[in-house]
Amino acid sequence: MARAAGLASFALVFAATYYATTLALWAGHWFSHLPWSSLRTFHLAGHHTLYPDSRHTRSTQFHYGSGRASSTPALLPWLLIEATLAWVLDAGWRLAVAIGEIVVLVVLFNAVHTQFHLLAPGLERRRWFRTARRRHELHHDADVNFMVGDHFWDRVFGTFREATPPAEVLRA
Predict the structure, then answer these.
(1) Category of 67 on φ-ψ map: left (φ > 0), alpha (ψ -120 to 50) or beta
(2) Which of 32, 140, 15, 10 is nearest to 76 (CA)?
């Protein structure tokens, strides 16, 4: 009985942390697109200047920007708020699980986002990746699709737009 309660508690912490982290990433990204946002210069002057639209989103190596043109500071306040809430609400092993999951999710999302912008990404052969990259390319044309892979919060807040599949190559 105690083991089942422990597994249920772990599953609840894991799910809550996943949705809290993806919400923090969505909020940081969305907020950095608002015209009045103090974080706008970091993200748009950096990442969106280097990759201005869907026709210009790929390079041989990924470019973040630096200093006031770095995208990273736009996300940090939201992740710090989440980590602080995890610290206040959780104790012991739950806090360790939550913080560990936050780190892993941010690293994974960053790795996939980096692959979106490479000319020859290692994930290109994966259909889910090609779909996710087309959705991300739309983001460089409009204020839609703020998440990297899981668009749950984009759907909740009405910022999701599906990408049309590329035209199929017909073989003779």
Answers:
(1) left
(2) 32
110: amino acid identity, one letter: N
What's the whole-model pTM score? 0.85
- pLDDT tens for each residue of 1-13: 667 767 888 888 8
CB 25 within 8 A of CB 72: no
Listed in sequence order, the DSSP H helices in 140-170 are: 152-156
Nearest in space to 121 (alpha carbons), one of 60, 56, 48, 30? 60
Residue ranges in the chain assigned as alpha helix (H): 2-31, 40-50, 72-89, 93-116, 127-139, 152-156
CB atoms within 10 A of CB 111: 12
Tell me the one-letter amino acid at 26: W
Q: What is the largest CA-CA distance in the chain?
A: 64
In our burial notation (b when 16+ CB lie closer than 10 A, e otherwise), range 140-153 reads beeebbbbbbbbeb
For residues 48 and 65, the answer to whether their CB atoms sit within 8 Å is no
